[in-house]
Amino acid sequence: MADTDTITSVSVATIRSPLPIPVNFGPWRMEHREFALCRIDTESGLSGLAFCYTRDGPIAELVQSDESLPAGGACPNEEGQSGGGPGDDSSSAPAADV
């Protein structure tokens, strides 16, 4: 079994930036670009950063809700086994806004 690391915090922020020139896709007009930025910190001191386009979806709200986690709240490790994630009994994983 691989070693696991407990997630201690998950932070997420939504960044919206207006486009200098709007883009038209047929009848749909895109006037801004929106990104979700996410940071995960672990008990051992490791941190990870990620971003994605939101396409105006509620990405930050999904990351902050328990419903967005895998069943049981555990994050699978490299071998597909669960453990050491938010919602795990050994985890303290408060969601926080940046």
Description:
The chain is built from one helix and four strands, in the order βββαβ. By secondary structure, the protein is mainly beta. The chain has a single domain (7-92), classed as Enolase-like, N-terminal domain (Enolase-like, domain 1, 2-Layer Sandwich). It has a four-stranded mixed beta sheet. A hairpin with a 2-residue loop joins strand 1 and strand 2 (28-42). The N and C termini lie far apart (34 Å). Mean pLDDT is 72; it is low at 68-98.
Describe the protein's topology.
Layout: E1 7-25, E2 28-42, E3 47-53, H1 59-64, E4 95-97
Parallel strand pairs: 1-4
Antiparallel strand pairs: 1-2, 2-3
Q: Which value, in Å, is the CA radius of gyration?
A: 17 Å
* Discrete helix count: 1
The helix-and-strand class reads: mainly beta
- Give the beta-strand count: 4
Classify the helix fraction into a percent range. under 10%
Strand order of the largest sheet: 3-2-1-4
Mean pLDDT: 72
Sum up the overall morphology in one term. Answer: elongated
CATH-defined fold name:
Enolase-like, domain 1
Summary?
This protein is mainly beta and 98 residues long. The protein has one helix and four strands, in the order βββαβ.
Question: What descriptive keywords fit this protein?
Answer:
98 residues, single chain, disordered C terminus, 4 strands, 45% strand, Enolase-like, domain 1, mainly beta
